[in-house]
Amino acid sequence: MASEAKPESGTSLATLRDRLRRLYHGRTPEAVRFQAAVVLVDIVIIAFFIATPLLQGTASFLWLDYAVAILVAADLLARLLASTDMVRLMRQPTSWVDLFILLTLLFPTALANLSFLRILRLWSLSRSGVLWRHLGGGRFLAWRDTTHAVVNLLTFLFVVTGFVYTFFFRQASGLVGYVDALYFTVATVTTTGFGDIVLPGVAGKLTSIVTMIIGISLFVRLAQAIFRPTKVLFPCPQCGLQRHEPDAVHCKACGHVLNIPDEGS
């Protein structure tokens, strides 16, 4: 009897993995609806992460925290089961980010000082194949790099805001302290430097220096993404070059004939 149960169990797991694979990577109407729901849930989770400093003192925070932990764990497990190469998936930085976020959700008290890093989920979402699979063609493709640059900048702003609030402004009341941290971060990243809010001590000066250097770099990256000549992502079948001019007929690296679809395709 035991030997008969094993194949059935294996078949059930294979059926589940096939079902998840079709939902996460398929293009059927059902898969599209599922993937849109996954993106929507991700956006709600990111909103919760941004609001975490303001919610930590409420009675319902732990319930919300563990509910989000269940969602993140279920999504990570489902993606693993849907993957054809689990080891490769777990080696990706986005998977490391999800695991770290899950740890901060499971141990919200012990890892409270690291909870500001949860906003990295926004960066993971911007790299998600689920997000771009159905927005990757036509006019959306031209804005992909710009969107990544904007998301990188927003992620950095919220990470620094959370860090500054956690280590410098937590003694202030929740909303006021968080707004002060956000105000300081934006003023520092833009090098405006009003000077009405400054971070005390050597640690504060070093934080300001790092914030300015990385912030300027991200602004430059955003400007490059917006103003450089528009190219499309279309891998050359011969040499694999990814970027080409929208009207290119031949690959500029190897001369292979290209067949780049126009925006209406």
TrEMBL record:
An example Gene Ontology molecular-function term: voltage-gated potassium channel activity
Subcellular location: Membrane
Transmembrane segments: 31-55, 61-78, 99-120, 149-169, 181-203, 209-227
Record bears the keyword rRNA processing: no
Source domain of life: Bacteria
The entry's keywords: Ion channel, Ion transport, Membrane, Transmembrane, Transmembrane helix, Transport
Location (main, coarse): membrane
GO biological process, one term: action potential
Cellular compartments per GO CC: voltage-gated potassium channel complex
Domain Potassium channel: 155-227
Keyword tRNA processing included in the entry's annotation: no
Protein's membrane topology: Multi-pass membrane protein
Matching PANTHER family: POTASSIUM VOLTAGE-GATED CHANNEL PROTEIN SHAB, VOLTAGE-GATED POTASSIUM CHANNEL
Protein name: Ion transporter
